[in-house]
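Ticket reopened. Same input as before:
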Amino acid sequence: MNTKKPTFLLKPSYALAAMLVAAPALAVDFHGYMRSGIGATGGGGDQACFQAKGAGAKYRLGNECETYAEVGLGQEVWKEGEQSFYIDSMIAYKSNQANDWEATDSKNANTDNPYENGTSSIRQFNVQGKNVLSMLPGATLWAGKRYYKRHDVHINDYYYWDVSGPGAGIEDIDVGFAKAHVAWMRNTDGDWTYDGAGTGTNVANDTFDFRLTDIDVNTDGKLIVGYDYGKANLTDEQEKDPGYTDNKGHLVTMEHTQGNWFGGFNKLAIQYGTDGIIGSTGRNSTGNSDGSMLRLVNQGVVGLSDDIEMMYVQIYEDKDLDNKQGQEWFSFGLRPVYKWDNVMSTAFEFGYDQVDPQADGQDTIDLKKFTIAQQWSAGRSFWARPQIRVFATYAMWDGDDYNAASESIETGEDDGMTFGVQAEAWW
Amino acid sequence: MTTTSRLPLLLGLCSTLLLGCAGEPTSLRHVDAFNKAPQPLSISSSAAKQALAQAPSCCPSVRDFQFTPIPANFSGNVIIDRTAPAFEFDSGKSFFRAFALPQTSRSFEIRLYSQAGDTVLAPNAMLLNGNLQITRLLGKDDFTFVPAQGLKGDSMDARLRVDRLYLDNAGNEAYLVLYTSDEQMAGSTTIEHPAKAYARARGTEPPNIADPVAQHAAEGIIKMVIIEDQAAGQLANTYVPPRSIGQEMGNTVPAIPAPPVQPETKAFYRQAIDAALANRDLEKALRLADEAARVGDESAKTYLLEKVQIK
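Engineering reply: fixed in the latest deploy. New output:
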């Protein structure tokens, strides 16, 4: 055997031709997300997407009808010893995925005009100063618009703890047994929240967010404990208006993360919220009725074998409102992925949602969704992206109660089938 | 079984497809996230270690390595496994791949990405000048783990610039050897869990779980990309001070050898020397011998001395 002659495998690399981005200067972190594609509904028409009425989320594989993208650029602009400043930014874009030209003209956003249905949003612009507070070594002082420690479930795109927005805070304060984080965040209700004879002005809401993370509880297990206090911040004019009540609320969250769990991990979150904060994610809302909410979210990704990974989720949410407009939402989803090789995989997704309205005499509704997708991705992991998937989706519901389809399917129908091709990437 | 180099074949294929092996447009090569990385080799690190122990040393010295020439637009995967030659380096025995770098290009950057999975080859890189003298040794401190992003995989990366401001500078680095060392193989690298990479990209809270660890192994795959300075993007010529290669100590500067002299040229100078001697013009004969030496015919001087017998 001749060992002197080297063997090579030359694989031409390829680039994302769709992303025409000039080479950024060195040390700029370019990050982002995108999903886009094309689909159709069996029987004709644009791709319909299926969601149970009142459910907080829908299972997303082969069930996303829009183009959504985020483009972020960040850079550490200054560093001296352990002290540093980082600037982060992110702009998001969304459109109905109906035309080449989908202008982001906010005046016409979300209209039916297929050429002007785009929207864009400045979602992040913040500065993070690490180690700049001499009395809190290791901590980061930050201010600006920010995705703040959002907790989500990937397969149904459900954010159950998300107070992101304009804000300021200090994170990663070392308190020995845990890391502490404090933040002041803002969200605002539009003037539509109050339609009485009053002022018709926007209401600013504050959320004060306190978290303890990285608490060791068991082998490979960590605990997060969080408390959010949200309240309306009324102006003098709003204070005098009897139509505005100073709504406020409390949200307590406990989340346990188990690593080394069947080749993956499991996250169990328990949340209890009251009154103004019974939105969905921890923000205050003045339009809310008083009441209480209990929510459990259990999710994980496990490796069933070398070739099969699966994500699962169970959600139970009980909104018990004084005005009887609450509901119980139960959700269960699975997405096993079988990997044929390092690039190609087959994914199956089953999602079940059930919503039981609190008001007497209203029917409980449900939705079952099945999707099969052949996927090609840059790598083998469940999380490997970019990915291109060819999918077929079938959904069933009771057409007498509601129409689960976003379009293309007539009211009264009990089921629907869609198919298409979608790309998804994050980097 | 003979292992033949597939490089010329693949290069040929690339050129027939009019793609060039560079694949991606040069400007996009600068963005790691757009550079498709190969899958890490799936090997057992103990089997690799055993294969290395059994592999015979290919060559008596680095001088005897077979250096594969690579073009200035090179982008490809270097597989360092048991089919690669092995050599007993000062830092330990290792499989290696050796390359002859482009000589007449603009200055360029070499990017190395050693792909990490369950195992990773923690690379060492050796650069040598045209005289096969070591100019740089890169190792543990130079290759650092960079998490996956976009099409880029988890990998141990290094970037190095090779200067070509003066093409006739005999000290220019001409050869690159990729290998690993005992020190590197003793370690391991922690890889960012893909669920955390997702969280980082999406701005969500990463799950608080342990990261997987890649054992350093004797075999691995390194993606190598060469990025030549572009005409428009090249930095204005900066002054590179001459670097001593130890001439003072008697080291010779590796001269670029002159092409061999044509027999016609040789014959011409000998005829002219004969003619000058016939005319008793010794000075002209000496000048002709010098001139012949300058075009590479050192033997003209001997020829002249043989003709001029000291009486």
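Chain B has two domains: 4-234, 263-310. The radius of gyration of chain B is 26 Å. Please confirm and we'll close it.
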